[in-house]
Design brief:
10 helices, mainly alpha
């Protein structure tokens, strides 16, 4: 029962992380629109409504985390504080969009995205610890348990390490003066240290990209890693020249979001149920009768089958295929 409860808590934490990162990406898109909108644009009210919806979605995540905190000590006050900060900034952005203050709204949206990224990092760390405890409890219960994670697990760990380092760099940069500001000797030394750390993170991403290329991995993942390394190079150039602008800080938050998103994507694949090989055997069963979509009863039955299939708990990819299959039947 304890192990089942721990697994359920891990799944709930993973779900909240996924939702948080998805919201962070949507917030980033909304921020881009806010920055480029003309003061007389008719989209301000529409974007204000979209911002309010994102805030409500984040509030739903906050409520789920509050419920999880009653079952697990993994939910910390720091997580709640970061989520609260993001909610506050989203509310501020909604008000600024309603007042046609595009640049101010973009800044609030960037701050909301940064708070969600920090919360996601804390949640990811907590989930890793929860998974580690679960694996420890299961040791010795059977051969082969915990195997099969292989290079995917190593890739995910490297991405998470890079994300943690990037978060530290971003936080350190918040203490630096903006464009035109004078840095003290201590700040100049700290900037040099942060630039060096950014270079090391960039090197680790370049190494991962090289591994992906040599192993013939996913081309999209390879392109994302190469783009990440390029963005890091631009940030490093700004740091070395001391030309720290708002665009530099926003690019760093974007880098962190992409690192977190890549970690999440790899973790989702690790969460898929492991396949189990079995010897071949004859299976005798009666096939279901054909669907007759020319009748009302047939259409209702197809819809019932669709809902029943989705409730079986298939992965997102399979759910999409099932939906497409039934939609194609319905069109015919």
């Amino acid at each position: 029962m304890q192990k089942n409860s721990s697994k359920e808590a891990v799944r709930e934490m993973q779900r909240s992380i996924n939702d948080m990162l998805a919201l962070s990406k949507q917030e980033e898109q909304l921020k881009r629109e806010s920055q480029s909108m003309d003061p007389n644009s008719t989209k301000f009210q529409q974007n204000a409504q979209q911002q309010a919806k994102l805030k409500q979605s984040l509030n739903d995540v906050a409520n789920r985390m509050a419920q999880l905190s009653q079952k697990s000590f993994a939910v910390t006050p720091e997580m709640a504080q970061e989520i609260g900060t993001a909610l506050k900034e989203m509310q501020q952005a909604t008000q600024e969009l309603s007042n046609r203050q595009g640049q101010q709204a973009a800044q609030s949206q960037n701050d909301a995205m940064a708070a969600m990224n920090r919360a996601s990092m804390q949640m990811q760390d907590a989930m890793n610890k929860m998974q580690g405890e679960g694996e420890g409890e299961g040791e010795g219960e059977g051969e082969g348990q915990g195997k099969g994670k292989g290079s995917g697990q190593g890739f995910m760990q490297k991405m998470q390490n890079a994300a943690q380092q990037q978060q530290g760099i971003n936080q350190g940069m918040q203490q630096m003066p903006g464009q035109g500001g004078q840095m003290s000797p201590q700040q100049q030394a700290e900037m040099g240290r942060l630039a060096g750390q950014q270079g090391r993170v960039q090197k680790s991403i370049q190494d991962l990209a090289k591994e992906q290329k040599q192993s013939g991995g996913d081309k999209k993942a390879l392109g994302d890693l190469e783009k990440l390394a390029q963005d890091m190079q631009e940030v490093m150039s700004d740091m070395q020249s001391g030309n720290i602008t708002e665009a530099t800080r926003q690019r760093q938050e974007k880098i962190l979001s992409r690192l977190l998103d890549a970690s999440r994507s790899m973790n989702e694949r690790d969460f898929e149920k492991q396949r189990e090989s079995q010897s071949g055997r004859d299976v005798i069963r009666q096939s279901p009768t054909a669907l007759d979509l020319n009748t009302k009863e047939g259409k209702e039955r197809a819809m019932q089958e669709l809902m029943r299939s989705i409730q079986q708990g298939y992965s997102k990819d399979y759910e999409a295929l099932i939906r497409q299959y039934f939609e194609a039947l319905n069109k015919k």
